[in-house]
Amino acid sequence: METPREIFLKDYKLPDYYFHTVNLKFSLGEDKTIICSEITVFPREEGTASPLVLDGQDLKLLSIKVNGEELKGEDFHLDSRHLTVLSPPRSNKFTLEIVTEIYPQNNTSLEGLYKSSGNFCTQCEAEGFRKITFYQDRPDIMAIYTCRIEADKTLYPVLLSNGNLIEKGDLEGGRHYAIWEDPFKKPCYLFALVAGQLESRDDTFITRSGRKVSLRIWTPVQDLPKTVHAMYSLKAAMKWDEDVFGLEYDLDLFNIVAVPDFNMGAMENKSLNIFNSKLVLASPETATDADYAAILGVIGHEYFHNWTGNRVTCRDWFQLSLKEGLTVFRDQEFSSDMGSRTVKRIADVSKLRTYQFPQDAGPMSHPVRPHSYIKMDNFYTVTVYEKGAEVVRMYKTLLGSHGFRKGMDLYFKRHDGQAVTCEDFFAAMCDANGANLSNFLLWYSQAGTPLFKVTSSYDAESKAYSLKFSQEVPPTPGQPVKEPMFIPVALGLLNSKGKDIPLSSVYHEGMLQSIEKNGEPVYTTVLQVKKKEEEFVFSDISERPIPSLLRGYSAPVRLESDLTDSDLFFLLAHDSDEFNRWEAGQVLARKLMLSLVADYQQNKSLVLNPKFVHGIKSILCDLSLDKEFIAKAITLPGEGEIMDMMEVADPDAVHAVRSFIRKQLASELKAELLSTVQNNRSSESYVFNHPNMARRALKNVALAYLASLEDTEFTELALHEYKSATNLTEQFAALAAIAQNPGKTREEVLGDFYSKWQDDFLVVNKWFALQAMSDIPGNVENVGKLLKHPAFDMRNPNKVYSLIGGFCGSPVNFHAKDGSGYKFMGEIVVQLDKINPRVASRMVSAFSRWRRYDQTRQSLAKAQLEMIMSTNGLSENVFEIASKSLA
Ligand code: 0A1
Ligand code: ZN
Known about the structure:
Blueprint: E1 7-8, E2 17-27, E3 33-43, E4 52-55, E5 60-66, E6 69-70, E7 76-78, E8 82-85, E9 94-102, E10 112-116, E11 119-123, E12 143-152, E13 158-161, E14 164-170, E15 175-186, E16 193-196, E17 199-206, E18 212-219, H1 228-245, E19 253-259, E20 266-267, E21 272-276, H2 289-304, E22 313-314, H3 320-338, H4 341-360, E23 372-373, H5 382-415, E24 419-420, H6 422-433, H7 442-445, E25 451-459, E26 464-472, E27 487-494, E28 505-508, E29 511-514, E30 525-529, E31 533-538, E32 546-548, E33 558-561, H8 565-574, H9 578-601, H10 610-620, H11 627-633, H12 639-643, H13 651-668, H14 670-679, H15 690-707, H16 712-724, H17 728-739, H18 744-757, H19 761-772, H20 779-787, H21 797-808, H22 811-814, H23 820-835, H24 837-844, H25 855-869, H26 876-886
Parallel strand pairs: 2-12, 18-19, 19-21, 22-24, 25-33
Antiparallel strand pairs: 1-23, 2-3, 3-9, 4-8, 5-6, 5-9, 7-8, 10-11, 11-16, 12-15, 13-16, 14-15, 17-18, 20-21, 25-26, 26-31, 27-30, 27-32, 28-29, 28-31
Helix pairs in contact: 1-2, 2-3, 3-4, 3-5, 4-5, 4-9, 5-6, 8-9, 9-13, 11-15, 14-15, 15-16, 15-17, 16-17, 18-19, 19-21, 23-24, 23-25, 24-26, 25-26
The structure holds O-methyl-L-tyrosine (0A1) and zinc ion.
Zinc ion binds near residues 301, 305 and 327.
């Protein structure tokens, strides 16, 4: 294999040629599909003598014409990745016609044009269009497309592409055609085509300027009843974008298609979003509250891309976070407005800590805007998406809601119809507000999670309260030395009664700055920390306050403060910032877990601090609190989060300690947990709204605690909940509660669940995942058996993510000391890579932090990575992750 080539941001060059219109004709067939592409090309500089280099992969070239004339062999060059027209005409415009042949029925990579459950569909982001036809496959080539699709009418009655349907009709031989025209220019990654047997749920949306938009959600006919929630979500998203950002939909038709085989969650193709079925289909009996919430968020996300991504797109793939960070931020805000803001923030911050922090501290660490990549597919990461969203959130924290909106308005005004960079977004934000955000751009270029330390002191005599901040950004691959970052610190100060102290002024660098706004007191202010070390002194503080720092998690940093345990318990009980109440509990839990891990490692007996039990009890019993907030606040940090904080990660110790605390809490709070279950049962049919979801969440967490006791009474209780459940949220939670403990009941209930749901592949995937993630010792064997289960199929990404991805989510089994988990995964990666490199590279990432473990585990994991690297014909996707992990 040739060593894959690395591509660098610094090498970006403007294209020599632009495309104006693209006319595509697809003739879809069972053995082969023929694509004719007619492109009008114009040079960036008239008279250029540059060759025109087109990307193309796995294509059979049938013919190529320039201005109607067939090119001869000496006029072009063809290799496995490119088609080069050696001397294009030196005119200011010419046409290029290319005919290619492809075999979608054999395409298991699920990129380009492929078949899913008998239907044709496409996935072109990031670089899939080059698997359809030869093209300049880069986002700064934006053109107007028409697309004619021709196919057998019985097999493929529905023919869809981007934009508006302008013509359709029948052809000879039982075939038919449709012609679609998209009036908006777009990069090819937004091209889409779907052909198949589908039915639609139809609805309409009237935009605020009075335009009527037809909305259609397409699925196989039997799934249509499960699209009610998706349609609700779409309409809610359309309304929200108008209300919050003043953004209207711009065409008369919006299509969503659900397909069962899809590498990612969903794709924002212009007016023809294609979704993984998992993120469209839902009914109370077959989807959980988490699924409903994910559907709302992702339908919103893809819809919001219409402006942030499609109308304004990325100049190159390094700028991916320009559209993704911004769109994740927008979907987070949408979900917050539709449910509970605090709970959504907690969920988003937990995700960042659980997945992004470890990535940023490992060999795959990269900035929000990466400097280089081998395979762009590998950079659809939690860093680009979630940390990218935190970066956008910081603009809003710094500029305020109104200032942020002004920045967004200017961004669209300046860049509608363009392919731009992260600097363009930054400039719009600054210019719209006359703001100087100095070194803020470092958030795009410096990788690593800053370590942010805070110490405080109080002087009663001068009534001055000082906060000293210091920051350090750890070295990451290719970036040994870092500059200090611009950290917005939202903070409040609590008095001894737990109330916010009005903040009037603060000394900073010898200047007294007023905090009050229009004479009104301010309780939360945002400090701008920009240096390695910086001090702020608040005046007029009449007693020693307790600081509530980084309210709402105002910057993606690791905070270390000098708050004592009693300060943290105080914040847990009183902070007016609910996010920080949760955070205080988490800091306490992390400290407690780490100290018990140390005890466990020294063979000391484990004892749970009664103050912690009391803290949890008071949250659990506080009727004034939101129930989902309680559910989150009584949930311990995950095992990964604790391992991430250790010098040498010890999965067995962390697992033992987390289980110990859970059991201990369950046994000491038995009565309270039991009444929580009893008082929060469903009395009515399923409703997707915050109060109902919150109630179910709390009940389910309480049930899981009780079932962890392995006591017959609570196993019976869980069985009762399982049998009496009227929705999947409660039924599945009861199943999971039972499945924590090995034994006959577990096996019986798992068997019962499968027989009930065997015909619903999405529910069966949950059943796979639940077993795969199990901490039961030696689970690798069970997962091995499930690989052979008739419902499992290695070609379907969802099934792989459930069973194989699920297995990696169990630290005790994946990191089993005998290496069985690593060996299992190593073999799977090699097998999977031949089917779908993109899915395989997601799986191989499980190995990337192997250096965090002890010597024995290190050498076992390393051996598997080396075995993978030595495999013949390894994909670039897996090569990139495996080689960087070993570097
Ligand atoms: N732009 C999509 C993410 C996406 C990227 C690549 C894909 O290829 C299989 C699919 C989807 C989003 O952010 O939703
Ligand atoms: Zn996106």
